[in-house]
Predict the structure.
Amino acid sequence: MTIAADDPVAQARLTTFRAHLEELGWKDSRNVQIDTRFGGGDPDRIRKSAIELVELAPDVIVANTTTALAPLLQLTRTIPIVFAIVADPVGAGFVETLSRPGGNATGFTTFDYSISVKWLELLKEIAPTVKQIGVLRDPALTLGTAQFAAIQAMAPTLGVEVTPVGVRDAAEIERRIGTIARMSNAGLIVTGSSLAVVHRHLIIALAARYKLPAIYYERGPVRDGGLLSYGPSSPDQYRLAAGYVDRILRGEKPSDLPVQAPTKYDLVMNLKSAKALGLTVPPALLARADEVIE
């Protein structure tokens, strides 16, 4: 796990993973041992954790994101690895193809690039006056660059200008969002990354302080006070990951297990946050929501 041990997001994901693994017949400390490491968003700690886990020579390793998977694959090409929420495993070189991964890693993707455009469209639908949009991304991830490119390509069609905003640390986030807030009719798109999870409370607080309409990569930030999200359920990704762990423990190889994409993306909105921003949610958008927080 690349986030902190006491983060409710981490705990929700682990609870789902353990529960489904137990449903499949694997109970921790009875017929399987689960060792967990938490990175807290610190790249050095994440690399150290990867080394520790590989040295344990386990039957399988579960990696939550690209930030966790990359150092693991630098250390081992033999230990089976199941990833839970990696956005572009082919582009990153983690697998050969989605249908035939080919190596020691397989798992579940989160977003394709078209989702990035959907974020832009939904933000304009709920806040039509937005003209300047900051796109928060982790510049170390190839996905962040590709998602920004997709958003940038669509922006002129919707009459907006977009600016990339790095999320390397809290100070940069605060400084850059402050710059975006000084623009007229500004808004935010928060793309998915481990750092976006680690710093989500800061991002939500800044969006509220500056009255910036913002759309997020999953429902968690919206439940914490964010405005709007569109994306898969991350705990569900861990339920699916448990299924692949079960199959590997029973003898299947990662190279034979296809990488799978989410089958459903949820639209979640927070009406209290919309009211605080002075936004009127269009009835058509409200009707499409999978979850409405009041």
Notes: The chain has twelve helices and ten strands. Residues 118 and 230 are 8 Å apart (CA to CA).
